[in-house]
Sequence to fold (927 residues):
Amino acid sequence: MKNTHITIIALIAVAIGAIISTYGDSSTYEGFTKAAENPDKEYHVVGVLNKEKPREYNPQLDANLFTFYLIDEQGKESKVVYRAPEPADFERSEKVVLIGKMNGDYFEANKILLKCPSKYNEGQAPQG
Amino acid sequence: MNEVQFIGERLIYGNLGHLAVVVSFGTAIISTFAYLFAANNPQEKSWQKIATAAFYTHTISVLSVVLMLFLIIRLHLFEYHYAWQHSSTDLPLEYMVSCFWEGQEGSFLLWIFWHVVIGNILVRSAKSWKFEVMAVVMMCQIVLTSMLIGVKILGYKIGSSPFELLRNAIEGPIFKQADYLSKIKDGNGLNPLLQNYWMVIHPPTLFFGFATTIVPFAYVIAGLWKRDYVGWLKPALPWALISVMVLGTGIIMGGFWAYESLSFGGYWAWDPVENASLVPWLILIAGVHVMIIYKTTGNALIVGMILIISTFLLVLYATFLTRSGILGNASVHSFTDLGMSGQLLLFMFVFLGLSVFMLVKRWKELPRSAKDEDAYTREFWMFIGSLVLTISAFQIILTTSLPVFNKVFGTNMAPPSDVIQHYNKWQMPMAIIIALLTGIAQLLKYKKNTREGLINILTQAAISIVLSAVAMFLLELKNWFYVGLMFASVYAIVANLFTMRPYLTGKFKMAGANVAHIGFGLLLVGVLVSSANKQVISINQSGMQLNPEFDAQANMEHVYLEKGKSLRMGDYEIEYKADSTEWVNNYFQVHYKKIKPNSNEVDYEFDLYPNAQINPKMGLVANPDTKHYISHDVFTYVSSVPKEKTTKFVHEKLHEVKLGDTIYTNDGYAILENINSNAKESNLDVKNLSLLIAAELKVYALNGTYSATPMYGIRENSEIKFESIVDEAKLRFKFMGVNPQTKTITIETAEQDTSGDFIIMKAIVFPWINFVWAGTIIMIVGFLLAIWRRLSENQRLRN
Fold:
């Protein structure tokens, strides 16, 4: 057997490993119900901000605590705790992606991604 | 139907621009076919003439498109959607250049422009390869210029024109008015995050890098086409090296931009958009190594060809990923979808099809080496290294492509929740292997002296163990992967320094590989130390437990900083001193004092001015500020500011005083120097006043002496009080009344409430991050030397 063949076999093995690892590490887009069932696992939850309920950020009290209510794509609502300042332009986001896990009665978000309609290009029509 | 005659539109620019786009598209088609026929019938000179004429017309028309688009932005012609969307009148000139490539159309145009530049070099230098290579380049131009055409055929939109009129792009009642243009005063402006010096030079560099990858690709196709499996390599190698150098520079510039102007705190975030540009670069580096192997041994030609082809296809794939909108929720900074994903896919499959067709057609003829590669040669280990690079790139593109798999297979996978950890787990071991191989392979040079080589390896390994052990001890590295990476990087540096010695006398251009590998080693050291020992220092150490409901240790990485009050943060004492506004940016002056450990002495002090732009479209956009020292950087950004600043006064207190008495407040004291009953105040409304008395106070505050003159008046039996505010002392004085019995007056003092004037900020110390930049620069110098060497080799062969 040639050295090159051994190398290629090793290569394929590592490539398969990479595929399995990517699959294993990948999270899934789920709702709060699923997250509540598996409180140890991190999920991506996509939803919209509930503007009726309070959105609290009191930097004087705690600069690292922001809470709000999110309605996921299945229509389930949950309180969300984010231990960082309120992201800029949060109330104008049309879609919110949370990454984190359920912690009792609230969802603990480690990361928040916002999809803002205005973020890059879609501007408002000119005022006349 | 009555057509509205619009007033004031300058349609000539757009018409010329659009015409130029159509001409460049047409000439791209003509020259592609003409070059193709010229290649097949070298005797027939007329095809060459047509091809050349078409190519030069193409060059001129592309330059015209560029000029017209720039004029539209520069002259603020907001009747054009592109100018309105991406620029505004208040932008400085350099940022107007950035507006040019903020949108998809402009960045395609940038790419087209670079292809034209490259084409003009190739028609002069490609000699016998000219027709084939140019045919491939111009074929790519057909696809690229079609992206700018912007016409609808059978309901399907082909391309998106940068010369689209605003009134056609957006619907609104305003466009029914003939003079609508006079009502559009300004454009949307440039995304504040892109208003940065690096955004002026990073995109053109990166796109030049992307554009250059077509040249080695075109040479491979040409080699297959002409059945010249050896000859393509010599002209292609310098181009491949140029591509490696420029693309690498472009990528690191993007990283530097992110570090300087984004608030995620770092230069690399494994974002899909970043990954998409890194992957072709890694594959190209692997390809260059395999090309060199083929050049010295005649082995591995097919692998080399596949890698070079893949580089270009991966550039197209990156284009598809970032521009089709498929990344969706996975990336924060891809382009907006222009509805061209079909066209982008077609772009990719046309070239994939061409490559597969050419390879399959010539597969049987391709020269293969019958003998096995000896494990004791440099080339064998270079080959292994290239494969590891390929695997590394494969792993990155695999995870980045999750949204594509979701689309194709209908799955619902999200990127790993801890992306950094996911990539590190794979990339760190591979970086270790690659760093080790750059040292070992250099020693097993040119298939000889293996014994001597082994002794060398052992000596250098010993030196590296000592050095990395010292570094490990000083930096307190605990993770075994970190220790391994530290050793491997130090070894790469040491071994390459050793093997470089013979070149230091005169033959410096031979040292390209060594220099590039040393740079790579330094880069790894920098990446390792600056991220492993990165320290978030903005953790409140006042001992106050603000919210006992939650665990105090949970990522409390932002501090609340009130104006004028200082705070201890790690080894630093910080104070938010002042804020100022310049153009659209608010700068917050944060004063840092580094305190020596175990004492209260100040080691050094400096000011940082992180800024926040309150953008009407994007809310607060934070730009960090960083203090650079040789050994570390202090990085700071403002994550939140009060929504609106209020000037409120609190702690009102009444003082009954007579002449010469002193009034004490928390922030200083004041002496009543005079009571003036004949006060004349021109600024005040003194009409119908029956009485006006002024109290003249001298105010002694911590930062100086000021005067205050509150007044008291009577108009039609009611009291009127004129307050006096001393901004510098943050005090307010009010004259409340006169007490004739005690011959005193009553003064009310109040202190300004500064609690509404604060910033929330985060600060990170990056140790030895300069290794990252220094390593990159050295690596680029290495590429330059290698390009120089290969070019002069080709020159020598020609003479």
